[in-house]
Amino acid sequence: MIFRIGNLTNNYRIVTPTTILHDHRLRSFPMNSYLLVYAILHIIIIYYVVKCAYVCLKIRVFHWNLTCLIFSCSVQWFETMLGSLMILPYETGYWTLGDSNTTVQQGWTDDESGMVRVSSIYNVFFLGAFLKFHYILSMGMTGFTLAVERTFACYFLTDYEKKPRIYLVVILIASHQLISLISTILHFFLVLPNLVYMIILALIPNVLSSVIFAVTENYNQKVTKNIENFSNPNTYTLAARYQAKENVRCFAMIRKVIFAGIGMILVSCTSAIFIYFGILPDYATSINFLFEASLSLGPLLIGPTLIYSVTSWKNFKFFKLTLKISPDHKTTVTMVLPGRDVECQKETDQYFKQLNASWI
Fold first, then answer.
1. Could you tell me which residues are beta bridge partners of residue 117?
2. Based on the structure, what is the number of domains in the chain?
3. CB 237 within 8 A of CB 156
4. Percent of the residues in the chain that have a pLDDT greater than 70, as a whole number
5. PANTHER family in the record, alphabetically (predicted)?
6. What share of the chain is helix, strand, coil (3-state, %, to 5)?
7. What is the model's pTM?
8. Is 29 helix (H, G, I), strand (E, B) or coil?
């Protein structure tokens, strides 16, 4: 939705990630059931966001830098939740924005007569819209940030696990937020000339992240194959083997998360197209709800995908029920796959050679 801020002679435009204003139908049955569903979905998301943020720190299965990135991206969802709470009273018509309290539905328009006129930008609504915009664009940058971190993990393959390199994650998080902030300002204040440029700017980091992931994953597969085949025993180290295996697990997890994110983007774009071209006007409230949900409720799909991609995270329980059962006699059976004993022997010999060399 595009607003014109100021008076007739001195004004400027801003765009917000909303499509409807003063929808009084949301205050009466049955349309107010949307708000109930919205609240329930937010409660579910809070559970998954808190669990994801807690479990990635409690059960650390990846490098500390990647763990910090996952934690940062998880808790940032509360930014859009706060923004949604600021916007909601204006969307439902409890609070009035501008001179009129009539229902306004608008997507993208270049017609100034169709823009909502507001005398001042100093309003809770615009602060909430800015927070939501910043969260949306930050999530669009997340894939690129993770791709850069995995590139460093492959570059420092031999000692990435042993050396924390905290400066890398500090630079990545600071750059992530700074670039997202600049992008939000460009979008929010309509510095870009039209919608096409805005879409291109939003797609650039996603395209770059896909390319970086493909190149990095291909490189990591070659390194892993060389390590597993003992093609160069002199460069074989436990740290390199561990980091290569971690990269494989990480790429598998991120691939699932990216597919989930693409699904949310498709829902958002489809609903935005319906609103922009006025398709199915009788279902405008439902389509608007779907559009808002796709922007704010992404963790509802991405959160479970992230958690269930890692076995130890999936099995973690917040509330544990302890049942005391008298232990019976247990027999442990160890199975060794054919050829595995030879591979283990190679690894053991190599470890002892490196240990012996370190003592000389």
1. 4
2. 1
3. no
4. 81
5. SERPENTINE RECEPTOR, CLASS E (EPSILON), SERPENTINE RECEPTOR, CLASS E (EPSILON)-RELATED
6. 65, 5, 30
7. 0.78
8. coil
